[in-house]
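Write out the 3D structure for:
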Amino acid sequence: MRSGGFDAGRGVLMATARTGSAPVCLRPTAAPVLAPRPCPAHVPLAPAQERMWQAARLGRSADWNVARAMRLRGASVDVAALRAALTLLVARHVPLRTRYPVTEHGPAQQVVDPDEVVLDVVECGVGEAELAPAVAALAEQPFDLTRDLPVRARLFVLGPDDVVLALVVHHISVDGRSMAPLIRDLVTAYLACRAGTSPQWPPLPVSYIDYTLWKHEQLGEFTDEWSRATHQLRYWANALAGRPALLDLPAREQPVPSIDPVAGALLPISFDAATHAGLLRVAQDARASLFMVLQAAFALTIGAVARTCDVTVATAISGRDHRLLDDLVGNFSDDVLMRVRLDRAADVGELLDQVRRVALAAYAHPDTPNPRLKRCLPQDAALPLFQATLILQRAEAPRVTAERIPAQGLSITEVPTGVVRAKHDLEFGLTDHYDQLGAPAGVDGSFLYPIARFDEATAQHFVARFRAVVEMLADGYRGPLAVLLAGTGHGRSLRAARRATRVLV
């Protein structure tokens, strides 16, 4: 007998007990509305914050620092105005003045009143040779999230008309898309403070606390078997059941103990406009996205290097699924996993179809915190949920430059922080670019890896292999996966397959 179903005529969910008892009508409740609301005494962490909080609790807080440094040059640099601008910035954006203590109800968000904020801003004079080490040391300094505000700044004064503002914020309070509104609001506040006025910011429609409460109202409780939270957790537990706990990657036989396990290095990678256009054609033919095509190539590369047909990879999603969240500073992004079974695809077309379906299912279940999921899987909790991740983002609009600042004689340029943290074994961060007419202009980015686990030659081999697979797909290869998974040594088999592909197409 059917245990339940949907009655379209009445718009109710029918849940019928198997014992033959009368059906129970579960009427859907109205969707929660994202709007300003009263702040309760206890505000839990947002789902995207739980992983960072747990990492900090385990002593890895600095791994999640987000650092930016900007150099201001010109006769009009005003250090006092910079200090005042930082104070206004923290007052405007709630996550910048939030602590995360442990309470009797679990970890919580504790917002500090703007009038009670004591901001960690220090002004210090440095020479040119001292600048880079000073910025790097600031970027690597951990936060105590239970007591500290998650932001600190240093004003490195190199001269009366040369100042570097270094800003470090913990990832629990910002994500990648937060940096654009944060820097924009900081520049607006600085120009206003220097002019002796108040910044003319548009009011924020909601706060991060409003978002958190709205998100928890959407998800419900894990103790409720019918809640959205439980449904998503059940999906992931089923989707990941039986997967290999670890990928057999060609790492160093003995990790270098003297090296920080998350100290990383970067290798550049880029694809020209023609390859970009070819990938877009593949995506269109497969009813997929550019990201899905790249993710398929990534899974193939990992499968070949790790000698496995069961590959779990990850990507980050923005989590900003409401227009009111666009300009908020806060952490909305989280990782979703994609388990790709290469042995269940006979050729490239079937693989792309599988990756498309897996990716869409992952996007539909984005709110299960990684620490909670790890407790539900039959694997050692010390093992990572995933080791490989690929992130694709659209190129940003031009950043703030001297020409865009209405202040004669003032320039702002970005300064490298000199800190590279590799929290995963294999990570591609890619950006796709388009010209003014929207035509593909290329894809570029970097490959990030921990130097304690992989030497540069191994990393270069992985990048070369990924490049070869991507270029084969862009060239039109649609044949069996065996060609792409075959051991290549120096890539000879892939190059031969590419030549054959050009003949076929």
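Confidence is low (pLDDT under 50) at residues 1-27, 397-404, 488-492, 500-505.
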